[in-house]
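Suppose you are handed only two things: the residues of a chain and a line of SMILES describing nicotinamide-adenine-dinucleotide. What would the bound structure be? This form records exactly that question and the answer produced for it, so the two can be stored side by side and reused later without any lookup.

QUESTION INPUTS
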Amino acid sequence: MEEKSVLVTGAASGIGLACVGLLLKEGANVAAFDIQGDRMAQELPGDEARLLRIQGDVSRSENCEAAVTEAVDRFGALDALIHWGAAHSSARWDELGAEECNHIMSVNVTGTFLIAQAAARHMTPRGQGAIVLCTSTSVLQGVTGGDGQGGPAYVASKGAVIALTRSFARALGPHGIRVNAVSPGITETAMIAGYTDEQRAAMLRRFPLGRFADPDEIANAGIYLISDKSSFMTGEIMQVNGGSNFG
Ligand SMILES: NC(=O)c1ccc[n+]([C@@H]2O[C@H](COP(=O)([O-])OP(=O)(O)OC[C@H]3O[C@@H](n4cnc5c(N)ncnc54)[C@H](O)[C@@H]3O)[C@@H](O)[C@H]2O)c1
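ANSWER OUTPUT
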């Protein structure tokens, strides 16, 4: 990974934060992007020369373009994007209103499109690059929301990420750019903080491994998908869910 420069979104928390740590350990240059600038400064302190912190909102095209420009200015080029940043919604079908629904779509769908578009604009003239997006195992399960689990807005937004992954993969493949997604199962991060004890116990019964994921275990899948070890993978949705989704 030594010479790679990677833009990582969702870098202030959970899987994105773990991903930044793992990439720095591997010797990569990392542009860490998150809407929570203060939290990112707290979680990623110090003057590490290979780390650039960028505050921004993925649902705003100018923030996405600026993030790519800043990363390229600092590191000379951008080899990969790993996009973990997302907003969560637990509202059930009869609680969800247009405003919350539009917000989730704007961050998780439009935001995914905009950050991938900004990265692709830099990568296409270079004829190389790797992009990793993030969907969710909940897409396969018909989750209903409530008790902290994803509701219709969240799950629909994560379904759209699968479609975006395949659309980008087909469009960018001829330019030497691979586009894949990680589909995590339940992972111990702030995103599941709203689970009740009953909900946790009920969900755990689905996991043959008897536990939820550690953020590093999901982050490593993203790092694999930007590495040369996955050089013949594109348009794939990599399931990393502790066996919670078969049978
Ligand atoms: N935790 C789980 O159980 C789980 C399961 C399946 C999928 N996922 C997915 O994994 C990814 C990482 O989630 P996590 O569990 O680490 O959650 P998290 O809440 O710990 O981290 C999400 C990060 O995204 C950032 N973010 C939110 N809106 C943003 C915006 N508009 N612009 C920029 N950054 C923004 C937040 O500030 C936060 O730092 C997400 O895409 C999530 O949907 C998580």
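WHAT STANDS OUT: The helical segments are 14-25, 37-43, 61-75, 98-126, 152-172, 197-204, 215-226. Residues 9-10, 12-16, 34-36, 57-59, 84-87, 107, 111, 134, 136, 184, 186-187, 189-192 surround nicotinamide-adenine-dinucleotide (CB under 6 Å).
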